[in-house]
Amino acid sequence: MTKNKLSANLYHSVNKHLNEHIGDELKRCNTSSNQCVIMLEYTFGREVFYQIDGFINFAKEHNFSEFQIQSTLIHDIGGALNKDTLMLPRVSDYAQYSNLEKSTLNNAL
After folding, report:
1. Helix, strand or coil for residue 90?
2. CA distance 83 to 43
3. Of 8, 15, 38, 102, which residue is most buried, by most CB within 10 angstroms?
4. Mean pLDDT of all residues in the chain?
5. What percent of the chain has pLDDT over 90?
6. Burial of 65 (0-12, 13-18, 19+ CB in 10 A)
7. What are residue 30's phi and psi, to 5 degrees?
8. What is the pLDDT averaged over residues 5-23?
9. How many CB atoms lie within 10 A of CB 39?
Protein backbone atom coordinates (compact mmCIF):
# COMPACT_ATOMS: atom_id res chain seq x y z
CA MET A 1 0.00 0.00 0.00
CA THR A 2 1.38 3.41 -0.88
CA LYS A 3 1.95 6.13 1.68
CA ASN A 4 -0.80 8.32 0.19
CA LYS A 5 -3.36 5.48 0.13
CA LEU A 6 -2.54 4.49 3.72
CA SER A 7 -2.85 8.11 4.85
CA ALA A 8 -6.20 8.46 3.09
CA ASN A 9 -7.50 5.25 4.72
CA LEU A 10 -6.39 6.38 8.19
CA TYR A 11 -7.84 9.85 7.68
CA HIS A 12 -11.15 8.47 6.39
CA SER A 13 -11.47 5.98 9.26
CA VAL A 14 -10.92 8.57 11.98
CA ASN A 15 -13.13 11.09 10.22
CA LYS A 16 -15.91 8.46 10.16
CA HIS A 17 -15.50 7.77 13.91
CA LEU A 18 -15.66 11.46 14.73
CA ASN A 19 -18.76 12.03 12.63
CA GLU A 20 -20.47 8.97 14.08
CA HIS A 21 -19.84 9.80 17.73
CA ILE A 22 -19.47 13.57 18.01
CA GLY A 23 -20.61 14.93 14.65
CA ASP A 24 -23.54 16.83 16.15
CA GLU A 25 -21.32 18.44 18.78
CA LEU A 26 -18.75 19.44 16.15
CA LYS A 27 -21.51 21.06 14.06
CA ARG A 28 -22.85 22.85 17.13
CA CYS A 29 -19.36 24.28 17.72
CA ASN A 30 -18.97 25.15 14.03
CA THR A 31 -15.97 22.81 13.71
CA SER A 32 -15.47 20.28 10.94
CA SER A 33 -14.35 16.71 11.49
CA ASN A 34 -11.81 17.26 8.70
CA GLN A 35 -10.18 20.06 10.67
CA CYS A 36 -10.13 17.86 13.77
CA VAL A 37 -8.44 14.97 11.99
CA ILE A 38 -5.78 17.28 10.58
CA MET A 39 -5.11 18.84 13.98
CA LEU A 40 -5.03 15.44 15.71
CA GLU A 41 -2.25 14.32 13.39
CA TYR A 42 -0.44 17.67 13.58
CA THR A 43 -0.49 17.71 17.39
CA PHE A 44 -0.11 14.04 18.31
CA GLY A 45 1.25 12.33 15.18
CA ARG A 46 -0.25 9.69 12.92
CA GLU A 47 -0.23 7.05 15.68
CA VAL A 48 -3.24 8.83 17.21
CA PHE A 49 -5.34 7.48 14.32
CA TYR A 50 -4.63 3.89 15.43
CA GLN A 51 -5.25 4.88 19.04
CA ILE A 52 -8.67 6.38 18.26
CA ASP A 53 -9.69 3.37 16.18
CA GLY A 54 -8.50 1.03 18.92
CA PHE A 55 -10.34 2.99 21.59
CA ILE A 56 -13.61 2.84 19.63
CA ASN A 57 -13.22 -0.92 19.14
CA PHE A 58 -12.39 -1.49 22.82
CA ALA A 59 -15.25 0.74 23.95
CA LYS A 60 -17.78 -1.13 21.83
CA GLU A 61 -16.51 -4.55 22.99
CA HIS A 62 -16.72 -3.48 26.63
CA ASN A 63 -20.09 -1.70 26.43
CA PHE A 64 -18.86 1.83 27.13
CA SER A 65 -21.69 4.32 27.10
CA GLU A 66 -21.93 6.78 24.23
CA PHE A 67 -21.21 9.52 26.76
CA GLN A 68 -17.91 7.86 27.71
CA ILE A 69 -16.90 7.61 24.06
CA GLN A 70 -17.92 11.19 23.33
CA SER A 71 -16.17 12.68 26.34
CA THR A 72 -12.94 10.87 25.48
CA LEU A 73 -12.97 12.01 21.86
CA ILE A 74 -13.88 15.59 22.79
CA HIS A 75 -11.06 15.71 25.36
CA ASP A 76 -8.50 14.64 22.78
CA ILE A 77 -9.84 16.93 20.07
CA GLY A 78 -9.76 19.85 22.49
CA GLY A 79 -6.07 19.21 23.07
CA ALA A 80 -5.41 18.92 19.35
CA LEU A 81 -7.29 22.11 18.46
CA ASN A 82 -5.32 23.94 21.16
CA LYS A 83 -2.07 22.40 19.84
CA ASP A 84 -1.38 21.10 23.35
CA THR A 85 1.57 18.81 22.68
CA LEU A 86 2.08 18.29 26.43
CA MET A 87 -1.37 16.75 26.86
CA LEU A 88 -1.65 12.98 27.02
CA PRO A 89 -4.58 11.86 24.86
CA ARG A 90 -7.02 9.60 26.67
CA VAL A 91 -6.83 7.17 23.75
CA SER A 92 -3.04 6.82 24.02
CA ASP A 93 -2.90 3.14 25.06
CA TYR A 94 -5.55 1.72 22.72
CA ALA A 95 -3.64 1.30 19.43
CA GLN A 96 -3.30 -2.42 20.11
CA TYR A 97 -7.07 -2.80 19.63
CA SER A 98 -7.11 -1.10 16.22
CA ASN A 99 -8.26 -2.97 13.13
CA LEU A 100 -6.56 -0.51 10.81
CA GLU A 101 -3.73 -1.88 8.70
CA LYS A 102 -0.48 -1.50 10.63
CA SER A 103 1.90 -3.49 8.45
CA THR A 104 2.86 -0.42 6.48
CA LEU A 105 2.82 2.07 9.35
CA ASN A 106 6.60 2.34 9.63
CA ASN A 107 6.98 2.78 5.88
CA ALA A 108 4.35 5.51 5.83
CA LEU A 109 5.75 7.63 8.65
Report:
1. coil
2. 6
3. 15
4. 89
5. 81
6. exposed
7. 55, 45
8. 88
9. 17
Backbone angles phi, psi at 4, to 5 degrees: -65, -40
Mean of the pLDDT values across residues 8-36?
94
- Sign, CA dihedral 105-11-69-29, equals positive
Confidence of residue 8 (pLDDT cuts 50, 70, 90): confident
pTM of the model: 0.86
Q: Could you tell me which residues come within 8 angstroms of residue 95 by beta carbon, excluding any fewer than 6 positions away?
A: 47, 50, 51, 54
SS3 95: helix
Q: Give the Å distances, CA to CA, from 74 to 3, 8, 67, 84, 98.
A: 28, 22, 10, 14, 19
End-to-end Cα, the chain, rounded Å = 13
Give the list of residues 6+ apart from residue 36 with CB closer than 8 angstroms, or none. 18, 26, 77, 80, 81
